Amino acid sequence: MFLRWVLVPKMRWMEISQLLTLTIIANGAPVIAQKLLREIASQPLDNGWTLRDARPLFGPAKTLRGFLFGALCPCAFAPLIGVRWTVGLAAGLAAMGGDLISSFVKRRLGLAPSSRATGLDQIPESLLPAIACASSLELGWLDIIAATLIFLCGEIVLSKILFRLHIRARPF
At CA 13, angle to CA 15 and CA 101, rounded to 5? Predict the structure, then answer.
């Protein structure tokens, strides 16, 4: 029993669920903001800039509105789930940073904006918030891996549900 305790760290399921909630809010907020605000603050974050490969930095789907809502909505919800607003801010900023990294890589690979890239779309958006919030939520390496894998699988399923509810434009 003692050896098992030493080798297998105790999972922090409550903190993992708090992290996942904040990450889901961060990733869903831009979609909701688009539906509610339509063209308000819809300018692309990259302002249409291209790199030497003649492809956009992030693409037109990454907007100021989406970044702000994705970064700030977790701040508002964090106290409601028992964590400090600063943890919500860290999760939101890290999730949006992960989303921008995904978009940057997808543009370099020649993938169209909003195209599907399973794994690339989910891992940075969940791994970076887990790392950013690890200290505040006292998450270990196994918690970070679990949160990332749960988000990866859950986002794929949730995306299909949101598509059927006509909240998402595509089922992925």
Answer: 60
Structure-token match 């998450």, residue found: 139
- ∠ CA 97-105-150 to the nearest 5 degrees? 60
- Please state, as a whole number, how many other Cβ atoms lie within 10 Å of the Cβ of residue 171: 12
Closest CA to 19 of 99, 133, 125: 133
Of the candidates 167, 160, 76, 90, which has an alpha carbon nearest to the alpha carbon of residue 131? 90
**Span 138-153, pLDDT tens digits:** 999 999 999 999 999 9
Kindly state the greatest CA–CA separation across the chain: 59
Name 43's bridge partners. Answer: none
Model pLDDT for residues 10-57, shown as the tens digit of each residue: 889 999 999 999 999 999 899 888 888 888 878 898 888 988 988 988
> Among residues 110, 117, 114, which one has the least CA distance to residue 61?
114
Q: How far is 4 from 13, CA to CA, in rounded Å?
A: 18
pLDDT at 131 over 70: yes
Inter-residue contact 167 to 31 (CB < 8 Å): yes
Predicted TM-score (pTM) of the model is 0.85
